[in-house]
């Protein structure tokens, strides 16, 4: 297996640039060591140069045993799809030259070289662009100069940097198309450098927003083991941490050159690759520059063959940077691209360019003799050989030149313009519009134009910079193209969803945008419904978290774990969490309480004694029954008011007592129902005043009995106290004190409706707050004081000889009264809500019923059932 992996690394090594820090040769199979075999030149008054990246090369170490030579191997076309970059420039120049309104009387030409993704070759071909002869002779000009006015390229930061170090010396405008800037402060270090690509910070910001949108907080990061990969991780990871996103791993794709130098590290690289592909992490964020993707694709292919884990590797969401345009090397024809089905990538914003597809359809190997790239592209793309080729393979067909580009799978070539090709197209358009502005200024500023003598023969590179820095135009697709103050494209990135098919075709679906120029709050947009996920996920948004969600009713518990990893604890009693993955539970509002699952607050039930519930209805019926009985007793006494038993015990006080008891029973109804301001005012004061009058009547009756017997003694002076005047004084005096207490209570701190939110779980107690509890207890205390005096007097008079003596019955009735109200106080204080009210209603009914039953029912018994005892003779006989 190690041997197979070694061969894999050799193939992969053939695709990569040379290792830095070594002298190198580029091996080729041509005679002239200084001839560059692949270039594309078209004449014009002004030449636009381009540095493309089509080919790869094998790097050999230079031993200085022979003069350095430049050699190439034709089979190493890196990515056939990149040939579209050449064609986008050719199409843009063709479109400009055919436009009579753009640069009239001036024709544009181009000169295209390949960087071979190699530093030495990039420098060499940049010097070739600057040279006016076939040999590289910098700073030499002749009459037949090609008049290079600007350069576009390269497509990666390393190539752009190598070009900028040379072009900056001559102040030649370089409009690069690299997604990642070659240095941190481009305009400060390279004054002639521009990028037809938005600032990469927008891309990183969009990645963080995308992960947050889908609540993916546990992701893996993959980047190349070089400066670009290190910059990617150092920029992205802090941004992810700020947004609460953790990384399961941060892997760098292996350095193939290092592996070849140190064979003992093969197993380590294999293990790292295995951890990336087979990891359970569902979302992988990939810095999709060529080296990373080449290594990653080979890893997937290798493990799918050797380990049989293709399904595991496919069940992921790949999030790619804008360097990714879904391209495969021609060596990767056999790789199943459905591994990347449902992938999301950022892309340079692009639109369809009218006429480009038709331009591609007319393309064939003989369409442009000057095109040095089309032959090798055609052979690699269609896997065939031309008849005049020096190579011969039995299993490879002969190219006819009539093959159709639209028949190629999208991974090898696309008929629609890709994002990077669109960037190159806009670069050429920007240069042309800049030239147009320069020439247009001749009409508006004749004196300046005359002094500078602006024309295509003496136009200098540096004269474009003031116009190029502020360029702004609408291209043929309708997009506005302008550069910001940093010399970068003032735009954003598209979010692309890749839908792949078994025949290696695919669809790119634009599902979102990161646009820094949009209104606040609209910078990031994504249409989740338009996204097609990998078939493994069954169109369900994949879950990418360290652990399962904490559902409502639970909160996160983090102890000794990464901040994205946590346990789930149920919310404490009385608290809820109503969203997933909440850090803390919280209390409900006062008028609400947690439900059973503690995931939402529900309104509390109003808690009060209602007429509609059985308890309230029973007490109301009982109160009305007692009041009806009192009315019946009053009727009996009224009907028999001339009988001795009624006359014998001061019938005025008897009637007053019966009326008070009738009102006492009815006053209990004030305690039932929803408390309002009126009922709260009347409840306790009505009860206190009526009861004080009732007890005063009992006290007056008792004292009257005592005085009556004392007055019968010869020579007694008490006779003058016996009479209605004295009893009325007792009645009014005793009740007047209670009235004063109630008036003071209502004047200073009256009762009022109140809501107790906390005493009962899930219920709001609607009650009457007594206002001043001291005055409330004064009312009860004074009532108890009258009851004790009445009981004491009646107790001493219980043995007085009289057939109709009430003292015994009053004694018993007051005993019942005192017991009821003494037990009321602890019961009242130990209950809440409607049960507190029930205790007071029961005390009112029980004490009133005790007075009614003990004092009046014996008399009613005699009046109704034993009328023979209700006679004056019987009264005299007993006495």
Keywords summarizing the entry:
25 helices; 42% helix; Rhopdopsin 7-helix transmembrane proteins; Rossmann fold; eight-stranded mixed beta sheet
Stretches where pLDDT is under 50 for at least 5 consecutive residues are 1-35, 72-77, 307-313, 446-454
Biggest sheet, in brief?
Answer: 8 strands, mixed
N-to-C CA distance: 131 Å
Radius of gyration: 51 Å
Envelope shape: rod-shaped
CATH class of the domain at 40-51 and 80-200 and 356-482: Alpha Beta
CATH topology description of the domain at 40-51 and 80-200 and 356-482: Rossmann fold
Class inferred from helices and paired strands: alpha/beta
Number of strand elements: 30
Mean pLDDT score: 81
What is the percentage of strand-forming residues?
5-15%
Oligomer classification = single chain
**Number of continuous helical runs:** 25
Can you give a write-up of this model?
The protein is α/β, with parallel strands linked by helices and 879 residues long. Among the domains are: 40-51 and 80-200 and 356-482, Rossmann fold (3-Layer(aba) Sandwich), CATH 3.40.50.2300; 554-603; 619-878, Rhopdopsin 7-helix transmembrane proteins (Up-down Bundle). The strands form nine sheets. It has an eight-stranded mixed β-sheet, sandwiched between helices. It has a six-stranded mixed β-sheet with strand order 2-6-3-7-8-9, sandwiched between helices. It has a three-stranded mixed β-sheet with strand order 4-1-5, with no helix packed on it. The chain is rod-shaped and about 160 Å long.
């Amino acid at each position: 297996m190690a041997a197979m992996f070694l061969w894999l690394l050799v193939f992969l090594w053939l695709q990569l640039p040379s290792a830095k820090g070594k002298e190198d040769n580029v091996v080729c199979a041509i005679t002239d060591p200084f001839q560059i075999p692949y270039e594309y030149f078209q004449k014009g008054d002004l030449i636009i140069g381009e540095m493309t990246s089509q080919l790869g090369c094998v790097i050999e170490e230079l031993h200085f045993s022979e003069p350095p030579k430049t050699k190439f191997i034709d089979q190493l076309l890196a990515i056939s799809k990149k040939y579209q970059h050449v064609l986008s420039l050719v199409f843009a120049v063709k479109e400009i030259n055919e436009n009579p309104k753009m640069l009239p009387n001036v024709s544009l030409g181009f000169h295209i070289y390949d960087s071979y993704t190699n530093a030495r070759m990039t420098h060499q071909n940049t010097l070739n662009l600057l040279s006016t002869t076939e040999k590289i002779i910098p700073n030499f000009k002749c009459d037949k100069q090609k008049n290079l006015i600007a350069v576009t390229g390269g497509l990666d930061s390393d190539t752009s940097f190598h070009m900028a170090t040379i072009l900056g010396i001559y102040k030649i405008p370089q409009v690069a198309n690299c997604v990642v800037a070659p240095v941190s402060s481009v305009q400060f270090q390279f004054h002639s450098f521009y990028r037809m690509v938005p600032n990469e910070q927008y891309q990183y910001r969009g990645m963080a927003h995308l992960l947050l949108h889908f609540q993916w907080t546990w992701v893996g990061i993959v980047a190349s083991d070089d400066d670009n990969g290190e910059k990617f991780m150092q920029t992205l990871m802090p941004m992810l941490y700020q947004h609460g996103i953790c990384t399961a791993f941060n892997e760098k794709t292996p350095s193939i050159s290092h592996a070849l130098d140190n064979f003992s590290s093969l197993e380590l690289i294999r293990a790292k690759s295995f951890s990336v592909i087979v990891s359970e992490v569902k979302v992988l964020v990939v810095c999709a520059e060529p080296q990373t993707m080449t290594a990653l694709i080979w890893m997937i292919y290798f493990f799918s063959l050797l380990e049989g884990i293709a399904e595991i590797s496919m069940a992921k969401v790949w999030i790619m940077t804008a360097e990714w345009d879904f391209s495969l090397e021609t060596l990767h024809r056999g790789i199943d691209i459905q591994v990347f089905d449902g992938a999301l990538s950022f892309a340079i914003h692009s639109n369809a360019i009218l006429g480009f597809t038709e331009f591609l359809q007319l393309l064939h190997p003989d369409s442009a003799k000057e095109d040095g790239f089309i032959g090798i592209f055609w052979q690699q793309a269609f896997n065939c050989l031309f008849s005049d080729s020096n190579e011969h393979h039995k299993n490879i067909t002969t190219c006819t030149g009539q093959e159709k580009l639209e028949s190629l799978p999208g991974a090898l070539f696309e008929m629609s313009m890709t994002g990077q090709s669109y960037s190159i197209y806009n670069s050429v358009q920007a240069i042309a519009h800049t030239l147009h502005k320069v020439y247009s200024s001749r009409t508006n500023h004749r004196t300046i134009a005359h002094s500078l003598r602006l024309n295509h023969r003496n136009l200098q590179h540096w004269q474009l910079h003031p116009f190029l820095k502020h360029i702004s135009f609408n291209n043929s697709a309708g997009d506005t193209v302008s550069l910001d103050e940093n010399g970068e494209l003032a735009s954003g990135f598209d979010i692309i969803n890749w839908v792949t098919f078994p025949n290696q075709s695919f669809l790119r679906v634009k599902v979102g945008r990161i646009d820094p120029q949009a209104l606040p709050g609209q910078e990031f947009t994504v249409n989740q419904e338009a996204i097609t996920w990998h078939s493994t996920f069954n169109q369900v948004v994949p879950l990418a978290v360290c652990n399962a969600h904490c559902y409502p009713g639970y909160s996160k518990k983090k102890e000794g774990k990464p901040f994205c990893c946590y346990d789930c604890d149920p919310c404490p009693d009385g608290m809820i969490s109503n969203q997933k993955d909440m850090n803390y539970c919280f209390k409900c509002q006062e008028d609400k309480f947690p439900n059973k699952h503690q995931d939402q607050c529900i309104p509390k039930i109003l808690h009060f004694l209602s007429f509609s519930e059985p308890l309230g209805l029973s007490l109301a019926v009982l109160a009305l029954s007692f009041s009806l009985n009192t009315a019946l007793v009053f009727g009996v006494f009224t009907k028999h008011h001339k009988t001795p038993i009624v006359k014998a015990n001061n019938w005025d006080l008897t009637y007053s007592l019966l009326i008070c008891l009738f009102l006492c029973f009815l006053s209990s109804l004030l305690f039932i129902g929803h408390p309002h301001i009126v009922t709260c005012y009347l409840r306790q004061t009505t009860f206190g005043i009526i009861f004080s009058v009732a007890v005063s009547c009992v006290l007056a009756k008792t004292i009257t009995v005592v005085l009556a017997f004392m007055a019968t003694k010869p020579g007694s002076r008490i006779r003058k106290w016996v009479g209605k005047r004295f009893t009325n004084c007792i009645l009014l005096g005793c009740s007047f004190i209670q009235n004063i207490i109630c008036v003071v209570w209502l004047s200073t701190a009256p009762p009022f409706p109140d809501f107790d939110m906390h005493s009962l779980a899930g219920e709001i107690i609607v009650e009457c707050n007594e206002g001043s509890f001291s005055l409330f207890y004064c009312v009860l205390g004074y009532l108890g004081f009258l009851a004790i005096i009445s009981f004491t007097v009646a107790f001493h008079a219980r043995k007085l000889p009289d057939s109709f003596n009430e003292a015994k019955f009053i004694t018993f009735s007051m005993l019942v009264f005192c017991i009821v109200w003494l037990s009321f106080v602890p019961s009242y204080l130990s209950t809440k809500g409607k049960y507190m009210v029930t205790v007071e209603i029961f005390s009112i009914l029980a004490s009133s019923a005790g007075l009614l039953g003990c004092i009046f029912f014996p008399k009613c018994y005699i009046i109704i059932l034993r009328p023979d005892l209700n006679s004056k003779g019987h009264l005299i006989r007993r006495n």
